[in-house]
Design brief:
It is built from six helices and 13 strands. It is α/β, with parallel strands linked by helices. Helix 2 runs parallel beside helix 4.
């Protein structure tokens, strides 16, 4: 049995400092440590805090706000100077992460006490010029195809469609009718291929927080957790984080 604490979307050090993290086996952070459009300083502040938390293992992924972690975003800068500056920040970020007692997952796995964790920072594309965005359909399916079939705990920034992924009227665009913004492609992978999955951890959608036990087939259920700490209006929703035992 593992005691897992899950948090996400702290968006800056002021909200991290108000969290009370209990002792646990694994602490999971599912993206968006950055206040807005992340810098190396933002990453440094996050890692200093994250490493101190009372967990045997600390796992984290990036999110759409954590720009300097995304090599594709860096390489897409529109001119040589901004691309060089962004590249240096990316290299500094990768070097910095190695100095801390944390595990950074970027479409990679980590096994602890026989439990396989796999993390990806990706979300379906929305808006403009965010990190780790992939269009729904073929492009994001190529990312989800990397998920190992024997994964037990899946960590993505995006929720899956239909589980802890609804937004409020304020954020609906004109003409939209579907309040669910999670990834249908990821849900299909869970249903059709990830038969050993026990827990999916996400963030990204700030309007719904919690843990639900959801049916993915007539005979199979999976725990879904959205650990967003901060609401869309920058209000701290969680000070005592979600605790899950698997």
């Amino acid at each position: 049995m593992l005691k897992i604490v899950h948090i996400s979307d702290t968006h800056g050090p002021e909200f991290c400092k108000k969290l009370s993290i209990p002792e646990c086996d694994v602490l999971i952070f599912s993206g968006d440590y950055s206040p807005w459009r992340g810098t190396v300083n933002d990453l440094t502040e996050f890692l200093l805090w994250f490493e101190k938390q009372p967990a045997k293992v600390r796992l984290f992924i990036g999110g759409n706000h954590d720009l300097i972690l995304d090599k594709k975003w860096v390489d897409s800068r529109p001119d040589t100077v901004t691309r060089l500056l962004a590249t240096q920040q990316y290299l500094d970020a990768m070097e910095l992460i190695e100095k801390y007692d944390v595990k950074y997952l970027n479409n990679t796995d980590y096994v602890y006490q026989g439990v396989k964790f796999w993390g990806s920072p990706y979300s379906p594309t929305f808006g403009h010029d965010w990190a780790f965005n992939a269009d729904r359909g073929e492009k994001i399916q190529k990312i989800w195809a990397k998920i190992p079939t024997d994964v037990n705990v899946l960590i993505t920034h995006t929720p899956v469609y239909g589980f802890l992924d609804t937004i409020t009227d304020k954020y609906m665009k004109e003409g939209e009718t579907d309040y669910h913004k999670g990834c249908k492609d990821l849900l299909e992978v869970i249903k059709k291929r990830l038969f050993n999955l026990k827990l999916h951890c996400c963030g990204h959608i700030h309007d719904v927080v919690g843990v639900v036990l959801g049916h993915v087939s007539d005979k199979r259920r999976v725990l879904f957790s959205n650990g967003a700490v901060v609401s869309n209006d920058a209000t701290q929703m969680i000070t005592n984080p979600l605790i899950i035992t698997i």
